[in-house]
Fold each of these.
Amino acid sequence: MAEAFDALIVGGGAAGLMCALTAGRRGRRVLVVEHANRVGKKILMSGGGRCNFTNLGAGPDNYLSANPHYCKSALARYTPWDFVAMVERHRIAYHEKELGQLFCDESSKLIVRMLLEECAAAGVRIEVGCGVERVRHGPGGFHLDTARGVFSAPALVVATGGLSIPSMGATGFGYDIARQFGLNVLPTRAGLVPLTLSGKHAERFHDLSGVAFPVEARCNGQSFRNRMLITHRGVSGPAILQISSYWQPGDDLRLDLLPAVDAFDWLRQQQAARPAAELKTVLADALPRRFAQRLCEVWLPNRPMRQFREAELRGIAAQLADWPLVASGTEGYRTAEVTLGGVDTDELSSSTMMARRVPGLFFIGEVVDVTGWLGGYNFQWAWASGHAAGEAL
């Protein structure tokens, strides 16, 4: 005999918990089933354990989707300030780090505890270590066959996340459910992920691992100005993670190595002020010394500044401002923060997150083809989409 609820939520992450507490507050009997041994694992690890729980500037332009308009409704109806109000109500201290990013002063555990307290107050039941063996749809609505028995409800919310970080239990189960009910799933790939280098490109960088500095990364009409980190396998850092979501193998990727200055004007000033200094010495004032030396060993001529003609300085400046980075691939889902692609938004209502052709079936959070930038945007999508579905249950 199945145990009956008003709504079943598969997945106890950010989106699932937000959906549960929203529906629970409205008097719905809600069950959250989570296959891992605890809820909110991605919340706990995020932001170095401090949880970058939202971004004050979150808006539709900060998201990638085959339909860029889809996220507008949910984001407009549950804003970063709505989540901040809950954080403040629970007396969780937080700070703005940079670019609108809000972090806990203490631990991300406080965000999970807050969500669990809200769920408890709303009468939500949560079952952890409860894998779903089968999803059925028939008389009485949706039925979940689980390790803890059979649960049924007229509404089923899929909040299973994407494929990112499989070591934390990520699977493609949500996509399988979508396909089971005839919904289109767009191709997925790793997003917010380090890029790898190979061949001579890797050889030129392999001994510079750990070197980091500000760049502006540009690809396919998008640009991000932030830090780049050279790693054993390639490049990472916020600027690279951001642009990785817009890059695919073969795409042209460029870096401005001196994003804060006009490279030509700066080189001319250096030439006038330090005519005897070599180019590598001058560049080491604006770039990490080891990287500046490598530039002059491989790509740029190194000689005293007085020996460069204006045309040569212009050429060097052009290279510094538009430096090609030839990446071979990404580190994949193992280290990716998010999954691009997923359940096609054309299949879902933008106001409720419900499947248009399957009444009672909802998809929220990362499993949907909406992917945010680095910096709290993906959590805000989780809160907003979870809230939208919770209001509709």
Amino acid sequence: MTSLQVDEHDGNEAAGSAADSDEGYQRGLGARQIQMIAIGGAIGTGLFLGAGKGISKAGPSLILAYAIAGLVIFFIMRALGELLMYRPVSGSFSEYAREFVGPFAGFVTGWTYWLFWVVTGITEVTAAATYMTYWWDIPQWLSALVFTVILYGANLISVKLFGELEFWFSMVKVTAIIGMILICAGVLTIGFSDAGDTASVTHLWSDGGFFPKGLGGTLMTLQLVMFAFLAVELVGVTAGESKDPKKTLPKAINTVPWRIAVFYVGALIMILSVVPWTHFQPGVSPFVAAFEEMGLGIGAAIVNFVVLTAALSSCNSGMYSTGRMLRDLALNGQGPKAFTKLTKNGLPLIGTTFSAALMLVGVWINYKAPGEAFNYVVSFATISGMWAWIMILVCQIRYRAKADRGELPQSTFKAPGAPYTSWFALLFICMVIVMMGIDKDARISLYCAPLWGLLLAVSFLVLKKRNPQSAAFTKADRKRRRPLR
């Protein structure tokens, strides 16, 4: 350990409790909740609805796309885990970008991740309102309003209630997928249901081969696949409110491989073995199609309920993360000072309220003008979400280099194979962005990004002029570094 490390380590130990109180959050998320937040973050509408489009584009090879992308996600999460064990903070992505890349990178990352969840919250609460019309003829705006108010209220009661909601939302999704896998396994082995006579694993290669649309078709689905994994990094935002982050966070991150293997790869293998890939259509849930093929009429209702919970889960996560991200920006002088205020329960009231209000405005816009303009805004979610992944990888690479030189303490949860695995993940994300540029349906995301970047650059210049300290990583910031206790 170098003299710099010794000085910083001693100072950190002395100020450990003070640093915790400065952050102000309460550690109300237990191991059970963290585990389900991690699991639920990887399961959303991208699987329940979006997989239908991916199957129609790539056929059975979509399974391989999910497997490879899942490996990349694991590399990203292990990179995040290494950073979290070095310094666990609620505004993790923004904080790490600020420290290892620069104040401007932290500014961009914080505001971009905030926007990602606001946009996601807008789309998901609107989707949830739409799903309600399956059962009842309720005005869409009314359902959206009720859902937003309920989730907003839950996020202002306690972080434990947020975790409990996420636990049960995730439980519904996990139960649905496991149930589908077991039903398909029964069809394949016992042969019950209308699909019993035709179900066979040979469907994975008999209808045009495993790559019926060629390798190019598989590559073009990567953007859909990566979109399905967005929000898996949310577990990093919970670092400042986990009861025992040293144990719970590594355990949650290490479950990524089997989560993806079971919930994505396993589920698709079973579904595509029961139903030939040619029977799936874009815009139709593969789960619904499989239920219909098996003659189970309740399938559509079940999937509608599951997708409803997935949408509410995503909106709930948006409420949680936006308030924390705004507060972190404000603490660094890169956002309005009002966002730093916490309730007696340690909750970011003003930041959460501001974000929730914007979500309501988005619902109103979608109701009044549900045209292409709104879709352009929604498309930004993919590229903004991947920006957080890019920053995680870049920061981990730079942190590991400093730690290896003895300038910083080593993390207790090193990413295996890093920095090579991190470079591989970065190259993979770059390839996905190129694929987005080729695909006319996703290209609009790349048009939105430069405009948002320009807005942030101008805002940062104004901020730097008014408050130079907010645009620099100071000695006071270095004192905030502390090992995980």
Amino acid sequence: MTDRPGAPTRRGFLKAGLAGGGALVAGKAAAEGPDPLITETQPWAQMWGDGVDVTPYGMPIEYESDVIRRNVDWLTADTISSVNFTPIHALDGTITPQGCAFERHHSGAIDLPKEDYRLMINGLVETPLIFTYADLERFPRVNHTYFLECAANSGMEWAGAQLNGAQFTHGMIHNMEYSGVPLRTLLEEAGVKPEGKWIYVEGADASSNGRSIPLDKALDDCLVAFKANGEALRKEHGYPVRLCVPGWEGNMWIKWLRRVEVTTEAIQSREETSKYTDTLADGTSRKWTWAMDAKSVITSPSPQSPITHGPGPLVITGLAWSGRGAIERVDVSLDGGKSWQAARLARPGQKMALTRFYLDIDWDGSEMLLQSRAMDDTGYVQPTKNALREIRGLNSVYHNNGIQTWWIKTSGEAENVEVS
């Protein structure tokens, strides 16, 4: 816990409330007498609860009905080729429930029964192969936790503060435990010819969303996944089988994976030429900027998760990640980057996975300019938005990993702002 000199500690805060003779309500001593929610037997303690068969597949309780994916109506022409956002402001820990993990579709989510699923491996291989879903289940499998981030995450913020909520500025991301077969295993089964240097992967949906991936990456850590968080993939996440490309742009994580072709060079498809390139200030474009650089965001307090309890103990929390390695440190600033203090990592950073951080303070009710700054184990330090703009201008959409600022007002409400 970080306390300013003379500030009350949490223990002292609670002791003071109890010494006053009243019950504690929302962290404050109740002055109006006993709290009936404690002193009186409530309805839920006077009757039977639901039996074990009421919800064969458990659903979130109604009191958490606002923890949902959301889209932005004006962002795309329709919802078929669009994106929605993970409610990161309302979650804790690091694992994203499948039911609220963001979606990105190029031609909508399709229904593909696993009995009808086929995966072809062809091109520069010794033996072209076709696998069924049942075939994939027979290979030795692995489990890995990875984040998936859309290259356009935070893309609307290039020109300035636009969207008022962590869900909308940083919510094109999720973090799940994937189970499946290493792509390397399947490629070795087919036998890659020496002249093979790339693979071209495509999905079974109408867009196919074909992308080229260097063979070295394919043989390193790519995963052909059919489970997430222990259960079958959801329809919107590529059921029955998707590709995982750890640390790299989400558009390369092909859903409904139907074909892997080994080639001598990149195919130069639409999704890697006219799309998912980074236009610089002089009009030239960078391509093949696959890795997602170190990034972080404070999820609470934030515009969708304001401070409602007034001054006193406050937990500041957020997420950090890096597509180049593991998060090693996260610093938090209360004053817009003038000074920094180290946050507490919930656990040591894990490669290509989200890391949860916390900073526990006693808030005195004054304004704050909250920022977080991530550092990964390669030594990379998350830059400011202005530092990115100086290098890349304002024409970009993708790969905005600049430091986010929330203006915390004396009321506890928060707003998306920038500092100079």
